[in-house]
Amino acid sequence: MNMEKKLYYEFNDGGEASRIVMELSAAMEWIRNDELKEGDDREYTLIPVWLTDEEYNNLHKADN
Questions:
Q1: d(CA 41, CA 55)
Q2: Between residues 64 and 30, which one has the greater pLDDT?
Q3: Domain count, the chain
Q4: Around 40, how many Cα atoms within 13 Å sit in the side-chain half-sphere?
Q5: For residue 5, what is the DSSP state?
Q6: Which of 13, 32, 39, 59 is 20 to 30 Å from 24 by CA-CA measure?
Q7: What pLDDT shows up at residue 35?
Q8: Sign of dihedral through CA atoms 43, 49, 52, 54?
């Protein structure tokens, strides 16, 4: 079992998506694909978190 911690990010878009943990590349993709309407004032927050593979996988199992 690999107990090495990897860097993930807790993502919040100031709207519906909050406290989602993902890799940086996934967060960047989310932001690029976010369809904002004119006048939308969106603020994104990324909080770094260190997790093992097991901790990360357990987060996603809890969301189901």
A1: 33
A2: 30
A3: 1
A4: 11
A5: -
A6: 39
A7: 78
A8: negative
Tell me, yes or no, whether 15 lies in a domain.
yes
Q: Is the dihedral of CA 33, 25, 12, 42 positive or negative?
A: negative
User: What would you report as the CA-atom Rg of the chain, rounded to the nearest whole angstrom?
Assistant: 13
Residue with tokens 């943990």: 21
DSSP code at position 28: H
pLDDT for res 22? 95
pLDDT at 1: 61
Write phi, then psi, for 60 (nearest 5 degrees): -75, -30
CA distance 2 to 63: 23
Coil vs helix vs strand at 49: strand
For 1-59, the pLDDT digits (tens) are 668 999 999 999 887 788 899 999 999 999 888 877 777 778 899 999 999 999 999 98
